Amino acid sequence: MEPILVAKNLSKKYGKVVALESANLELYPGEVLGVIGDNGAGKSTLIKVLCGAVTPDSGEILLDGKTVTFTSPIEARTLGIETVYQNLALSPALSITDNMFLGREIRQKGFMGKFLKFLDKKAMEDEARKRLSELGLLTIQNINQLVETLSGGQRQGVAVARATSFGTKVVIMDEPTAALGVKESRRVLELIGEVRARGIPIILISHNMPHVFEVADRIHVHRLGTRLCVIDPKKYEMSDAVAFMTGAKEAPQS
Amino acid sequence: MNKISDDISKDLKDQPKFSSDIGEVDQEHHTFDIGEQSNLKKIQHFLHGNPTIVPVIILVLSVIGFGFLAGGKFFSAFNLSLIVQQVTIVGILAAAQTLIILTAGIDLSVAAMMVLASVFMGKLSVEMGIPTLPAIVVGLVSGVATGAFNGLLVTRLKLPPFIVTLGTWNIFFALVIFFTGSQSIRSSDIEIQAPLLHFWGERINLGGFVFTYGAFLMIGIFIFLWFLLNKTAWGRHVYAIGDDKEAAELSGIRTDRMLVSIYAVAGLVIAIGAWVSIGRVGSVSPTSFYEGNLDSITAVVIGGTSLFGGRGTIIGSLFGALIVGVFSSGLSIAGLDVLWQRFALGCLIIIAVGIDQWIRKVSN
Fold first, then answer.
1. Quick one: A116 and A197 in the same domain?
2. Interface test mutation site (partner A, options B6, B10, B11, max chain A beta carbons within 10 A)
């Protein structure tokens, strides 16, 4: 099977600090790829490069086998790489619908939409409702609720629904459970399962080993600016992963 | 992050239903219910969802209050329509100011921009003999240009809007003095040379209520901006930028470009206000509306728009301007000194912002 997203030899320096050194990554269709690494290992730089927030000094990214370059998250998104940021990038004072379509609003058909630029609120509401209920997230009447009235897990749900709604090829999730309580984390992990079930591959960055081991199909271990190894969570223990991550144990050759 | 974790700790108390058991397909588990709330909390939530209610209540109460205090004279058709006339200019400035404040900015230069635009209109048509309509167009363009200039400074130099517009307020004011040599353009000259400039000052009598065309234009501007803010993507983006600029950027909104366009639209509205102001005042005076900046901010704040951006309604600012008008009129008819008008206005501002802060706590 061909990987859907490939990163080859990515390097990035900040002054004399090497954040990435010939880092590689492959994401295959339909999988959840966990990305773990100690603080300062360069995993957030890796993710920022993949989502377009940081431009690498060298190396290339292939999406569906084609080389792609982007200079902003907006460009990455247009190509189908969606990111759920740790801070979620939602506007709390706007409604669920407004947030889901922010920057990609649906206009009314004909004169009202074309010249007066009126929004087609009904179409957006219907679509938002459909997306949220597909992910098992919503009872119908609340679609115009303001995001700030939602709980952390629910907000995560809205952000995920938004990320999976627009012809998405890849979803990157940055620490989706970091700010959540036990129950809400559980719900978000289920959500990751739902997204995978719909055939969208996910890159999951997390410090939370139990969560990564629970949902990931493969785990990419990042160390000293590059990929140390990729392990199968069924064959290794969490303590092994931590040992590889910190260099306490020799990584397996793959 | 703190905010989110606060939410969660609250959620764990408030929302025991939002759960989690894998495989269980109980609809109840996925609902977004808000849970049990005290009455005060309910009021807070209601006001939070309907931010225009507070100014409406204040307006109604103050009209009733001054009705008692000042008697029938206050309620006369003449006086009520006079209030509307008097708030026309501040109302239009407040409409423009609302756009800026919704983006979490503030514009101290609105009145200076307006006077500058009116100087262009008057100078060109009265003293340079250019036909009135092109002169008005030049004035409107100057409004867009000065507005965009503010916007460019805010986005390119990354300076706080407060500082940028504090600077441009003085710059625009200096330009006004430069172009006019501190001389007013007399009303009688305008009447002869360019009567079109007085168009919005024309009056129309509707059963005792006397309205200027300008008052209708002001209402029209508010309705137009309401549609713009609520029915178009542009309007939603204004709110998104004020709410959380970084989030808006990550959502794909080109925030810098948006901000420049918002300042430019505000500039256009202000320049329309310049035309109306010539009709209202009669002459073009370089020193008029010196307090227009602060009056417009007052109207917006009393109208329930948050100075922190992202929250508020354009119609609230219309009510805010009317409240200021009602207070000034009512207190003067009741025979109170001007100093008490200012005193009352000051209290009103502090109360309005206090209520806003309280309502905003709902989200934490």
1. no
2. B11
- Report the Cα B156 to chain-centroid distance in Å: 25
Rounded to whole angstroms, the Cα distance separating A48 from A21 reads 15
pLDDT 10s digits, B289-347: 888 888 899 999 999 898 888 888 999 999 999 998 898 888 888 888 888 888 888 89
Q: How far is A1 from chain B (nearest CA, A)?
A: 31
- ipTM of this model? 0.80
For Cα atoms B93, B99, B103, give the angle at the middle one, nearest 5 degrees.
140
CATH number at residue B75: 1.10.3470
In chain B, how many domains are there? 1
Q: Which of A99, A147, A106 is nearest to A123 (CA)?
A: A106
The model's pTM is 0.84
Based on the domain organization, do A131 and A51 belong to the same domain?
no
Instruction: Please give the residue range of the domain that contains residue A218.
Output: 5-85+146-246
Nearest to A10 by CA among A51, B242, A36: A51
**Contact B105/B154 with Cβ under 8 angstroms?**
yes
Residue pLDDT, tens place only, A31-66: 999 999 888 888 888 988 998 888 999 999 999 989
Strand A226-231: give its sheet, edge to edge. A81-84, A170-174, A202-205, A32-37, A218-223, A226-231
A·B CB contacts under 8 A: 136
